[in-house]
TrEMBL record:
Cross-referenced InterPro entries: Acyl_CoA_acyltransferase, GNAT_dom
Biased composition (Low complexity): 199-209
Annotated region described as Disordered, given as residue ranges: 189-209
Name assigned to this protein: GNAT family N-acetyltransferase
Species name: Rhodococcoides kroppenstedtii
Domain N-acetyltransferase, residue spans: 15-176
SUPFAM superfamilies assigned to the protein according to its UniProt record, in alphabetical order: Acyl-CoA N-acyltransferases (Nat)
Length: 209
């Protein structure tokens, strides 16, 4: 995907999205502090080898750019990704997102999304998608608060780790939506950070797995 959106570290006031590498296995294991955060995404990360396998799978996908999420203090608190990068149609998805319980309910998730969305649209994206399990009410609500529009259900869209088939709720935001969505998202971040611009917000796991 070189020449469109480069895979590089994104810096916010309260969260850093660091380019995920094989050296981050210990960080990812430390961030995986509760198996329940993986209910809707992937198999729980319980061991270093599982964390390494998760990273290997993320890096093996040529249409995915995974990030490690860190707090301003440098604490690893989860991961997120661009995926389904399609330069021909200038579209991508944001997902494979999970956060430590310590980061949930903070401003980390909305600031991370502000960074990801801002970079995508600044580099010419015209459409950004989110995919989540139709039954994941928390994730659906969190995506909607970003300013994304619900576009329908994709039946038998992804196979879950237990072998069952998932119906996916599809959300999207276009470049036409971005100006107003950015303002609303920034206002939400400001409220959650006590009025300081650039802070973070509610966390929920959603993803493209």
């Amino acid at each position: 995907m070189s020449g469109w959106i480069e895979h590089e570290t994104l810096h916010g006031t309260h969260v850093t999205l660091e380019k995920l590498t094989a050296d981050h296995a210990d960080d990812l294991l430390a961030a995986a502090d509760d198996e329940r955060i993986f209910r809707w995404t992937s198999a729980p990360i319980r061991t270093r080898s599982a964390a390494a396998a998760y990273i290997d799978a993320a890096l093996a996908d040529p249409a995915r750019q995974p990030f490690l999420q860190r707090t301003a203090a440098g604490e690893p608190v989860g991961t997120t990704s661009y995926y389904l990068l399609d330069p021909a149609h200038r579209s991508l998805a944001i997902g494979y997102t999970w956060l430590s319980t310590s980061a949930q309910g903070t401003a980390i998730n909305p600031e991370a999304k502000l960074l990801l969305l801002g970079r995508a649209f600044a580099h010419g994206a015209v459409r950004v998608e989110w995919h989540t399990d139709e039954h994941n009410a928390q994730s659906r609500a969190a995506i909607a608060t970003l300013g994304a529009t619900f576009e329908g259900l994709l039946r038998k869209h992804r196979q879950r780790s237990d072998g069952s088939w998932r119906t996916t709720a599809l959300f999207a935001m276009t470049d036409d939506d971005w100006r107003s969505a950015r303002q609303a998202l920034q206002a939400r971040i400001d409220r959650r950070s006590g009025g300081q611009r650039g802070a973070r917000g509610a966390a929920s796991s959603h993803g493209g797995s």
